[in-house]
Specification:
Layout: E1 5-8, E2 13-16, E3 21-27, H1 34-43, H2 55-69, H3 80-92, E4 98-105, E5 109-116, H4 122-141, E6 153-156, H5 160-176
Antiparallel strand pairs: 1-2, 3-5, 3-6, 4-5
Length: 198
């Protein structure tokens, strides 16, 4: 499978290219109210050439991050079994389909930092994370229906400074949301102090 370059499925623009370091966020289906998503979608010009540094896209990402951290929705990822299931999905193909650099599983969304590889388009990687985890989480929670929002956000990392800022943002997310005192306290993160270092 070949990377698609800049593309969109009518939601958000994506850049899919081998060898990029990418920051990815995906969220539960009920984490942001549908009327807000519709309004924000209308504000964007859905153009496959849109760059991730465009002011409109940055403003949209900030607004959604605000709602994510407010803990809206059922927050199924608060369940330790479900959080571990999602974390296991991220780790499963590490150093095979991508290189996993940082991650954080929050109560209603997930942040991931990866380096992409040849032959594994970003869209296929994210689809793999979401499809298996959704089936298993729904089974565990005895629920039916859509688990994840259909799309995801991605931003390619421009340089070392940007990389450091994104990694810090991912690790500080549970602290800023008031879920723990330090990044090392959050069990479902690459920053967790109890994680074995290989």
């Amino acid at each position: 499978m070949n990377p698609k370059g800049w593309h969109s499925r009518g939601y958000h623009p994506h850049l899919d290219s081998a060898g990029l370091t990418q920051s990815i966020s995906f969220r539960l289906a009920d984490s942001v109210p549908a009327h807000l998503i519709d309004r924000w979608r209308q504000e964007l010009t859905h153009n496959t050439a849109m760059q991730p540094t465009d002011a409109q896209q940055i403003a949209l990402l900030r607004r959604i991050a605000h709602y994510e951290d407010a803990g809206i929705g059922a927050c199924h990822l608060r369940d330790p079994y479900v959080a571990e299931l999602v974390e296991s999905e991220l780790l499963h193909f590490d150093n095979v389909r991508y290189r996993l650099l940082a991650w954080c599983v929050m109560p209603n969304h997930v942040h991931v930092l990866i380096e992409t590889r040849d032959d594994y388009p970003l869209s296929a990687i994210v689809r793999g994370w979401k499809s298996h985890s959704a089936r298993e989480a729904n089974r565990w929670l005895a629920r039916e229906g859509v688990f994840w929002m259909p799309d995801y956000f991605d931003r390619f990392i421009r340089d070392e400074r940007h990389y450091a800022a994104v990694r810090e943002y991912i690790h500080l997310n549970p602290v800023k949301a008031g879920l723990c005192a330090t990044p090392e306290d959050w069990r479902w993160s690459s920053a967790w102090a109890g994680r074995a270092v290989s």
